[in-house]
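Retry 2 of 3 after timeout on previous attempt. Resubmitting C-alpha coordinates to design endpoint.
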Protein backbone atom coordinates (compact mmCIF):
# COMPACT_ATOMS: atom_id res chain seq x y z
CA UNK A 1 0.00 0.00 0.00
CA UNK A 2 2.79 2.41 0.92
CA UNK A 3 4.51 1.77 -2.39
CA UNK A 4 1.29 2.53 -4.30
CA UNK A 5 0.75 5.76 -2.39
CA UNK A 6 4.38 6.75 -2.85
CA UNK A 7 4.25 5.92 -6.56
CA UNK A 8 1.14 8.08 -7.02
CA UNK A 9 2.71 10.95 -5.07
CA UNK A 10 5.93 10.58 -7.06
CA UNK A 11 4.02 10.57 -10.35
CA UNK A 12 2.24 13.82 -9.47
CA UNK A 13 5.56 15.43 -8.57
CA UNK A 14 7.09 14.01 -11.70
CA UNK A 15 4.50 15.55 -14.00
CA UNK A 16 4.67 18.89 -12.23
CA UNK A 17 8.43 19.00 -12.20
CA UNK A 18 8.66 17.79 -15.76
CA UNK A 19 6.75 20.84 -16.94
CA UNK A 20 9.41 22.96 -15.28
CA UNK A 21 12.34 20.88 -16.46
CA UNK A 22 11.46 21.15 -20.10
CA UNK A 23 11.31 24.93 -19.79
CA UNK A 24 14.83 25.08 -18.48
CA UNK A 25 17.88 24.40 -20.59
CA UNK A 26 19.01 20.81 -20.25
CA UNK A 27 22.47 19.93 -19.02
CA UNK A 28 23.41 18.19 -22.23
CA UNK A 29 27.00 17.00 -22.49
CA UNK A 30 29.05 19.07 -24.92
CA UNK A 31 32.55 18.79 -23.48
CA UNK A 32 34.31 18.32 -20.17
CA UNK A 33 33.61 22.02 -19.64
CA UNK A 34 29.88 21.39 -19.38
CA UNK A 35 30.55 18.72 -16.74
CA UNK A 36 32.69 21.19 -14.80
CA UNK A 37 30.03 23.91 -15.04
CA UNK A 38 27.27 21.59 -13.83
CA UNK A 39 29.23 20.42 -10.81
CA UNK A 40 30.39 23.96 -10.05
CA UNK A 41 26.72 25.01 -9.92
CA UNK A 42 25.63 21.99 -7.83
CA UNK A 43 28.45 22.66 -5.38
CA UNK A 44 27.98 26.41 -5.08
CA UNK A 45 24.23 26.26 -4.42
CA UNK A 46 24.96 23.64 -1.67
CA UNK A 47 21.63 21.92 -2.24
CA UNK A 48 23.06 18.42 -2.71
CA UNK A 49 25.43 18.80 0.22
CA UNK A 50 22.65 20.01 2.51
CA UNK A 51 20.38 17.11 1.52
CA UNK A 52 22.81 14.24 1.00
CA UNK A 53 25.88 15.17 3.02
CA UNK A 54 29.45 14.88 1.82
CA UNK A 55 28.76 11.94 -0.53
CA UNK A 56 26.91 12.49 -3.80
CA UNK A 57 27.17 8.81 -4.77
CA UNK A 58 24.60 6.11 -4.02
CA UNK A 59 24.47 4.17 -0.79
CA UNK A 60 24.87 0.47 0.06
CA UNK A 61 21.90 -1.25 1.70
CA UNK A 62 22.77 -4.70 3.10
CA UNK A 63 20.28 -7.47 2.33
CA UNK A 64 19.61 -8.00 6.04
CA UNK A 65 19.04 -4.30 6.76
CA UNK A 66 17.29 -2.30 4.05
CA UNK A 67 16.15 0.53 6.36
CA UNK A 68 19.62 1.95 6.94
CA UNK A 69 19.89 5.76 7.10
CA UNK A 70 20.62 7.28 3.67
CA UNK A 71 23.78 9.08 4.73
CA UNK A 72 25.05 6.07 6.63
CA UNK A 73 24.37 3.94 3.54
CA UNK A 74 26.69 6.21 1.57
CA UNK A 75 29.48 5.71 4.09
CA UNK A 76 28.72 1.98 4.13
CA UNK A 77 29.14 1.93 0.36
CA UNK A 78 32.74 3.16 0.66
CA UNK A 79 33.62 0.45 3.19
CA UNK A 80 31.92 -2.26 1.12
CA UNK A 81 33.79 -1.29 -2.05
CA UNK A 82 37.08 -1.15 -0.13
CA UNK A 83 36.52 -4.66 1.21
CA UNK A 84 35.21 -6.10 -2.07
CA UNK A 85 38.06 -4.65 -4.15
CA UNK A 86 40.84 -5.65 -1.74
CA UNK A 87 42.00 -2.15 -0.88
CA UNK A 88 41.83 -3.10 2.80
CA UNK A 89 44.87 -5.30 2.17
CA UNK A 90 47.04 -2.27 1.46
CA UNK A 91 49.22 -0.93 4.29
CA UNK A 92 48.77 2.47 5.88
CA UNK A 93 50.45 5.23 3.95
CA UNK A 94 49.56 3.71 0.58
CA UNK A 95 49.06 6.27 -2.18
CA UNK A 96 45.50 6.38 -3.46
CA UNK A 97 44.13 8.35 -6.41
CA UNK A 98 40.42 9.23 -6.15
CA UNK A 99 39.23 10.01 -9.68
CA UNK A 100 36.11 12.18 -9.62
CA UNK A 101 36.43 12.90 -5.91
CA UNK A 102 33.49 15.30 -5.60
CA UNK A 103 33.75 17.30 -2.39
CA UNK A 104 36.04 14.69 -0.90
CA UNK A 105 33.71 12.51 1.16
CA UNK A 106 35.15 9.18 0.05
CA UNK A 107 38.72 10.52 0.08
CA UNK A 108 38.40 11.48 3.74
CA UNK A 109 37.05 8.04 4.67
CA UNK A 110 39.92 6.35 2.86
CA UNK A 111 42.40 8.55 4.72
CA UNK A 112 40.74 8.43 8.16
CA UNK A 113 39.73 4.77 8.44
CA UNK A 114 42.44 3.10 6.38
CA UNK A 115 45.39 5.45 6.86
CA UNK A 116 45.87 6.06 3.14
CA UNK A 117 47.50 9.09 1.57
CA UNK A 118 44.80 10.24 -0.84
CA UNK A 119 44.95 12.52 -3.87
CA UNK A 120 41.51 13.52 -5.13
CA UNK A 121 40.94 14.98 -8.58
CA UNK A 122 37.84 16.50 -10.15
CA UNK A 123 37.06 18.65 -13.18
CA UNK A 124 35.18 21.11 -10.94
CA UNK A 125 37.14 23.94 -9.28
CA UNK A 126 34.20 24.58 -6.93
CA UNK A 127 34.34 20.98 -5.72
CA UNK A 128 38.07 21.26 -5.05
CA UNK A 129 37.53 24.44 -3.06
CA UNK A 130 34.75 22.86 -0.99
CA UNK A 131 36.69 19.61 -0.50
CA UNK A 132 39.59 21.57 0.95
CA UNK A 133 37.24 23.50 3.26
CA UNK A 134 35.71 20.27 4.59
CA UNK A 135 39.02 18.46 5.14
CA UNK A 136 40.41 18.86 8.67
CA UNK A 137 44.07 19.46 9.40
CA UNK A 138 45.99 16.22 9.72
CA UNK A 139 43.82 14.35 7.22
CA UNK A 140 46.11 12.99 4.51
CA UNK A 141 44.09 14.27 1.56
CA UNK A 142 44.93 16.76 -1.13
CA UNK A 143 42.65 17.88 -3.94
CA UNK A 144 43.39 19.15 -7.44
CA UNK A 145 41.46 20.29 -10.50
CA UNK A 146 42.29 17.80 -13.23
CA UNK A 147 40.72 16.12 -16.25
CA UNK A 148 40.43 12.36 -15.71
CA UNK A 149 41.18 11.84 -19.40
CA UNK A 150 44.51 13.64 -19.05
CA UNK A 151 45.99 12.82 -15.65
CA UNK A 152 49.10 14.82 -14.80
CA UNK A 153 50.84 11.99 -12.95
CA UNK A 154 53.74 9.73 -13.87
CA UNK A 155 53.16 6.10 -14.76
CA UNK A 156 52.78 3.89 -11.70
CA UNK A 157 52.37 6.79 -9.25
CA UNK A 158 49.69 5.14 -7.08
CA UNK A 159 49.19 1.96 -5.10
CA UNK A 160 45.47 2.07 -5.84
CA UNK A 161 43.06 4.01 -8.03
CA UNK A 162 39.52 4.60 -6.80
CA UNK A 163 36.62 6.01 -8.79
CA UNK A 164 32.91 6.11 -7.96
CA UNK A 165 30.24 7.27 -10.43
CA UNK A 166 32.62 9.33 -12.55
CA UNK A 167 32.96 7.24 -15.70
CA UNK A 168 29.46 8.01 -16.96
CA UNK A 169 30.66 11.60 -17.54
CA UNK A 170 33.58 10.46 -19.72
CA UNK A 171 33.09 10.63 -23.48
CA UNK A 172 36.00 8.22 -24.05
CA UNK A 173 35.66 5.20 -21.75
CA UNK A 174 38.79 3.53 -23.13
CA UNK A 175 40.90 6.64 -22.44
CA UNK A 176 39.34 6.86 -18.96
CA UNK A 177 40.42 3.28 -18.21
CA UNK A 178 43.83 3.80 -19.79
CA UNK A 179 44.67 6.85 -17.69
CA UNK A 180 43.68 5.14 -14.44
CA UNK A 181 45.60 1.95 -15.20
CA UNK A 182 48.62 3.91 -16.45
CA UNK A 183 49.00 5.71 -13.14
CA UNK A 184 48.54 2.47 -11.17
CA UNK A 185 51.74 0.71 -10.11
CA UNK A 186 52.26 -2.92 -11.15
CA UNK A 187 50.34 -5.06 -8.68
CA UNK A 188 48.27 -2.11 -7.48
CA UNK A 189 44.51 -2.17 -7.02
CA UNK A 190 41.76 -0.62 -9.12
CA UNK A 191 38.37 -0.13 -7.43
CA UNK A 192 35.67 1.38 -9.58
CA UNK A 193 31.89 1.80 -9.46
CA UNK A 194 29.76 3.34 -12.16
CA UNK A 195 26.36 3.70 -13.79
CA UNK A 196 26.01 1.44 -16.79
CA UNK A 197 23.28 0.63 -19.24
CA UNK A 198 22.35 -2.96 -19.98
CA UNK A 199 23.90 -4.45 -23.11
CA UNK A 200 21.99 -2.34 -25.64
CA UNK A 201 23.57 -4.14 -28.57
CA UNK A 202 22.23 -7.52 -27.54
CA UNK A 203 19.00 -6.09 -26.08
CA UNK A 204 18.08 -2.93 -28.03
CA UNK A 205 15.97 -0.38 -26.12
CA UNK A 206 12.30 0.12 -26.87
CA UNK A 207 10.99 3.50 -28.02
CA UNK A 208 10.07 4.43 -24.44
CA UNK A 209 13.45 3.25 -23.11
CA UNK A 210 15.19 5.43 -25.70
CA UNK A 211 13.26 8.43 -24.38
CA UNK A 212 14.27 7.56 -20.81
CA UNK A 213 17.94 7.17 -21.75
CA UNK A 214 17.86 10.50 -23.59
CA UNK A 215 16.54 12.24 -20.47
CA UNK A 216 19.14 10.57 -18.24
CA UNK A 217 21.92 11.64 -20.57
CA UNK A 218 20.81 15.20 -21.11
CA UNK A 219 19.83 16.18 -17.58
CA UNK A 220 23.02 15.09 -15.81
CA UNK A 221 25.72 15.79 -18.45
CA UNK A 222 26.38 12.21 -19.53
CA UNK A 223 27.79 11.72 -23.05
CA UNK A 224 26.83 8.04 -23.22
CA UNK A 225 26.34 4.87 -21.18
CA UNK A 226 27.94 1.51 -21.88
CA UNK A 227 27.27 -1.90 -20.37
CA UNK A 228 29.17 -3.65 -17.59
CA UNK A 229 30.32 -6.21 -20.16
CA UNK A 230 31.67 -3.51 -22.48
CA UNK A 231 33.64 -1.73 -19.76
CA UNK A 232 34.94 -5.03 -18.40
CA UNK A 233 36.30 -5.80 -21.87
CA UNK A 234 37.91 -2.35 -22.03
CA UNK A 235 39.73 -3.05 -18.77
CA UNK A 236 40.64 -6.60 -19.79
CA UNK A 237 42.25 -5.58 -23.07
CA UNK A 238 44.16 -2.59 -21.67
CA UNK A 239 47.92 -2.98 -21.95
CA UNK A 240 48.42 -1.92 -18.30
CA UNK A 241 45.98 -4.47 -16.90
CA UNK A 242 47.10 -7.80 -15.46
CA UNK A 243 44.04 -9.26 -17.18
CA UNK A 244 42.05 -10.59 -14.22
CA UNK A 245 38.97 -8.33 -14.13
CA UNK A 246 36.06 -8.98 -11.80
CA UNK A 247 32.79 -7.09 -12.25
CA UNK A 248 29.37 -7.32 -10.64
CA UNK A 249 25.99 -5.61 -10.79
CA UNK A 250 25.14 -4.04 -7.41
CA UNK A 251 21.65 -2.87 -8.33
CA UNK A 252 20.11 -4.80 -5.44
CA UNK A 253 22.35 -3.10 -2.88
CA UNK A 254 22.14 0.45 -4.23
CA UNK A 255 18.61 0.87 -5.66
CA UNK A 256 16.96 2.10 -2.42
CA UNK A 257 19.12 5.22 -2.78
CA UNK A 258 16.86 6.70 -5.44
CA UNK A 259 13.71 6.94 -3.32
CA UNK A 260 15.80 7.91 -0.29
CA UNK A 261 17.39 10.78 -2.20
CA UNK A 262 13.91 12.27 -2.64
CA UNK A 263 12.68 11.40 0.85
CA UNK A 264 15.66 13.29 2.33
CA UNK A 265 13.88 16.48 1.26
CA UNK A 266 10.95 15.45 3.47
CA UNK A 267 13.18 14.39 6.35
CA UNK A 268 15.23 17.59 6.16
CA UNK A 269 12.88 20.26 4.76
CA UNK A 270 14.84 23.12 6.31
CA UNK A 271 17.90 22.01 4.35
CA UNK A 272 16.05 23.28 1.29
CA UNK A 273 13.96 26.08 2.78
CA UNK A 274 16.93 27.85 4.38
CA UNK A 275 18.56 28.14 0.95
CA UNK A 276 15.65 30.23 -0.35
CA UNK A 277 12.84 29.85 -2.92
CA UNK A 278 15.21 29.13 -5.79
CA UNK A 279 16.46 26.02 -3.99
CA UNK A 280 12.91 24.66 -3.94
CA UNK A 281 12.66 25.07 -7.71
CA UNK A 282 16.08 23.47 -8.18
CA UNK A 283 15.18 20.50 -5.98
CA UNK A 284 11.93 19.94 -7.89
CA UNK A 285 13.88 20.07 -11.14
CA UNK A 286 15.91 17.00 -10.11
CA UNK A 287 12.93 14.83 -9.13
CA UNK A 288 11.95 13.68 -12.65
CA UNK A 289 15.47 12.50 -13.42
CA UNK A 290 15.77 10.73 -10.06
CA UNK A 291 12.46 8.95 -10.66
CA UNK A 292 13.53 7.94 -14.14
CA UNK A 293 16.84 6.68 -12.75
CA UNK A 294 14.94 4.65 -10.17
CA UNK A 295 12.71 3.15 -12.87
CA UNK A 296 15.63 2.42 -15.19
CA UNK A 297 17.68 0.68 -12.50
CA UNK A 298 14.72 -1.29 -11.16
CA UNK A 299 13.78 -2.49 -14.65
CA UNK A 300 17.35 -3.39 -15.59
CA UNK A 301 17.72 -0.76 -18.29
CA UNK A 302 20.51 0.65 -16.11
CA UNK A 303 22.94 -1.33 -13.97
CA UNK A 304 25.27 -0.34 -11.16
CA UNK A 305 28.59 -1.85 -12.15
CA UNK A 306 31.49 -2.43 -9.76
CA UNK A 307 34.91 -3.46 -11.03
CA UNK A 308 38.18 -4.59 -9.52
CA UNK A 309 41.49 -5.59 -11.02
CA UNK A 310 45.24 -5.46 -10.42
CA UNK A 311 47.69 -3.41 -12.36
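Retry 2 succeeded. Sequence:
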Amino acid sequence: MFELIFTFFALVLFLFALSIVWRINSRKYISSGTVASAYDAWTQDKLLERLWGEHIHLGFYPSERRDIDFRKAKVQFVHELVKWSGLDKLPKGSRILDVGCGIGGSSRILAKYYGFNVTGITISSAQVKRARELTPLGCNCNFQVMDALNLKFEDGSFDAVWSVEAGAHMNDKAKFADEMLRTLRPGGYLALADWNSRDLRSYPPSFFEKLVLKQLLEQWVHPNFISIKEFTNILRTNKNSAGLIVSENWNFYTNPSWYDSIIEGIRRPFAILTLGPLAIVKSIREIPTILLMNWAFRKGLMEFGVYKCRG
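Attempt log closed. The chain has one domain: 2-310.
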